[in-house]
Amino acid sequence: MITLLDEYYKYDLHNTGYVERKASLDEQSVWIQGIAQSGKTALIKNYLLSHKKATYLYLDCSDIRISIDELNNELESFCHEHKIKILALDNYTPALKLFPIEQTILSSQLPNQSDFETLELHLLDYEEFLSFESKYYDSTALNHFFQLGGFPKMHKLHQEERVLYLQKILSSTLGDIEFSLLTQASKMITQKVSAFTLYERLKTERKISKDKLYIHLQQLYDKHYLYGCEKLGHPNAPKKLYVCDIAIKHALTLQKHFGKIFENLIFLELMKHNIESYYDEGIDFYLPQRHQIIIASAFANEHALFKKVEALEGFIITHQIRDVIVVTMNLENTLSHPIAAIEMVPFSQWALGEDDE
């Protein structure tokens, strides 16, 4: 094991073509959580390369040559002997014992199991996407975002390689049951889905108990491959289901329901900007902190919008809604309505203005 540690210590790290992310590391010890291929390794290496080589040790814990028992016996003394200040354990497993050191950086798909701060690394939002693909700042940028989604590496792959790349990553990273669940969930995005509904779907494909399915489903939520949007005032009601990236739906299903993909994208932008949201009958997203309603309507029809807002009059009055935002593909307009102002905003404009109050 000493030989392997020496090998890692002598490595010259490379991080060619790194594009800055909104997330960054400072001098604090941290647990970086993110799904496979979200950019955790690149983020770590970018930080380490700003320090003197002799002061850090980067170790990929997924290396099959590693013996956990041997590493637990030798890592602390190795770091002490070489005066290492920063220990980065990529793909960390909780079986590895931690010890006092100036800075520890851990990365995992799992939720934080340490005393360190959590840095959640999401896939690219639309603004980050544009920085990865600066040549697409024209009118084709949004269409390209719909095709690629938020996986950073997708920008470097040819079109015919992308689906198989994601299938390979997901099938090798997730267990068999989790992969099957994610495939089923990808067919049901934006729907109100209970765990029992997914159980009913999956049991037609394989023999599985409810308890086992519920455990694996929760793991997908914990790892943030899946998200659920809660119904306002009804925490026990079925949540609306969303996948962490639309490219996963493209890779695992043949369904091409653009409206659902569009709504999933809007949810992801809200989530990545830490904006609290709920759904309600006839309402895609209610943002209580902003007193806003968001309606996902890629190709909005003004007459239909008027009717929809009229049906929401009670909700609008009760919750003192200031704005009804209709996110569209490219339509922009302000509609005068006696109940509430209706703003039609193109997705690209809305997504880039997410932090504006």
Task: Give a verbal description of the structure.
With 357 residues, the chain is an alpha/beta fold. Among the domains are: 2-120, Rossmann fold (3-Layer(aba) Sandwich); 273-357, no CATH class. The protein is built from 14 helices and 14 strands. It has helices at residues 2-10, 40-48, 68-81, 126-132, 141-148, 159-173, 176-186, 195-202, 210-222, 246-252, 258-272, 302-311, 313-318, 347-352; strands spanning 30-33, 56-60, 86-90, 103-108, 117-120, 192-193, 226-229, 239-243, 278-280, 283-287, 292-296, 323-328, 333-335, 341-346. The strands form three sheets. It has a six-stranded mixed sheet with strand order 9-10-11-12-14-13. Helix 6 crosses helix 10 (246-252) and helix 7 packs across helix 9 (210-222). The mean pLDDT is 93.
What's the shape? globular
Mean pLDDT across the residues is 93
Radius of gyration: 23 Å
Main-sheet strand order equals: 9-10-11-12-14-13
Main β-sheet description: 6 strands, mixed
- Which structural class do you get from the secondary structure elements? alpha/beta
List keywords for this structure.
14 strands, alpha/beta, Rossmann fold, 357 residues, five-stranded parallel sheet, six-stranded mixed sheet
